[in-house]
Amino acid sequence: MSALRTAGSGLLRSLKIMARNKVGFLGFVLVVLIVLIAYIAPLFVPLDKTAHVEQIYEGPSASHLLGTDYQGRDNMSQILNGGKDIIYVAALAAALGVSIAVVLGSLSALLGGVVNNLAVGLAEMVLTIPHFPLLIVLAGFMRLTRPTSLALILGALSWAGLMLAIRSQVLSLKEREYVQAARCLGLPIRHLLFQEILPNMMSYVVISFVLAMTSAMYQQVGLIFLGIVPLASSNWGVMISLAWSQGAIFSSESSWYLLMPIAVVALLQFSLVSMTRSLDELFNPRLRMGE
Amino acid sequence: MATLRKLWRNYVFQRLVKAVIVIFAVTTLTFFLVRLMPGNPLEVYINALLSQGVPLADAQAQAAALYHVDLNKPVMLQYVEYLSGVVRGNFGTSITAVGTPVSKLVLQFLPWTLFVVMVSLIISFSVGLLLGMVMAYKRETWFDHLLSAFASVMSSVPNYLVGMLILVYLGVRWKIVDTAAIRGSHSPDIHPGFTLTFFLDALYHATLPILTYVLTTLGHWMLVMKSSTLSTLGEDYVTVARARGLTDARITLAYVGRNAVLPLFTQLALSIGSAVGGSILIETIFTYQGIGSQLSLAMVGRDYPVMQGVFIIITASVVTANLLADMLYSRLDPRIRVQGR
Asked: Do A132 and B280 touch (CB under 8 A)?
């Protein structure tokens, strides 16, 4: 019970620190809200996929708060149900990309030599190849049908820039006295990495994770929009893609079907980016000196 | 050996070798993707012809002609032949536009994309630098706050969504732009050539893509330039310049601006890549006939030779642009050139 209370007050204190940056905190709150709604709402609001031809492309009304789509289905329930996959793919892709970046970046900085040359060379190469066209070509050959496989591809291509950044961070961290001390004690690389170096880069890693999510979301929704990822399920990207191909832009009633998913995706992107400011505030004690 | 090592130390030479390696790797990747993946397009194509009653030998001959390969030879030999074809600019022929060489498609559509990307990049880079510097000089004023808010919103929203919003509002709702007339890369009755009418017409058709690019990348340049200027303002040489009694204009341009801009050039190189990559989405939205919309058409039509060729060319042009930006940067900042020595 007391452990719970400590955790609670620790959380409260963290939130207070994060609230110091107002825009950042707003972003954080919005991200939490959007993620919660995306995962909880589908339990209560079922997705009705049957067409209602008598109410095609209607504007907002009491029964359809956000209007209806090209088959007369409710936009609101599609928005509520459409975030789960997008967020899952973005988070998984970001987690994979950041993990590869951290492991490769710190190994090449710690081991140096051939490993370093190979890893840096590979990263520079992956960085120069334009990502989105590469994704399109890969997706074309691999027929990505499951969200997980899409996330894996997105993640596998997203590590290069971050890896170079992490490498230069580790290069400077490893010269610090406490790391040198651990080295002299003959502690294994695993210990150096996970006990000494990684905790000191945590803020950078977490912020990079959030930013990696935004770029994974950009690419994901883009691929769905182009129709390269099959439109089996219903999500925000599929809504945008269908709204575009079904001519939703041409009247103000129908454009709700296009504008709503755009608004949600844009809001989530903006919230994620501004959330990093609060995270910076939380992780970077130098920013809150005069406390 | 000693001369080789000396040559390797040459910055430009090193970049050149790396650029060639990247293009080579991409060519190799696309070659093996087409041939070795399960259910690869070659097999699919041959099977489709077989099911139409075409004899196996004919079907293989047709597939071989399309992909510019000889199926009876071992894969490695096919690979070498494909590479030598690519070096000579031969990427096979399109499946959907029967008989059109891929290289012809590329030559026809690539210039439009490069035109849009270059113009947008120049506008957003220079305007971003200017606004970023002003923001740094007027930090913590309403001007700075307003522009910072604009910059952080615009740089976080995906560019294709901004493009859609532009089309919905400027085109359909407010009818500021005639969406039917602005489609495509130039008007059908105006022929390409070195005339002012043609240039203005091309610019008119590129307005919306350029606007989209500029709006979505401007914020990034503003924010980076602001922080770069702020850190430069604290440098000793700026203080010394002030102490020497130089005019503000001279300090701003020659001492602060020139140094603050340097770190941005490395990012310029990378942003070319993402702009060309983003062209696939932007051009599809505005039905602009560039290389990006060709790639997405090829994708939808499963036109693999075109996909391969366009992807190699896109990579090659991004790599070349990177190379040029790198060389420019090493001219501007001598520290880069001598780093390896």
From this structure: yes
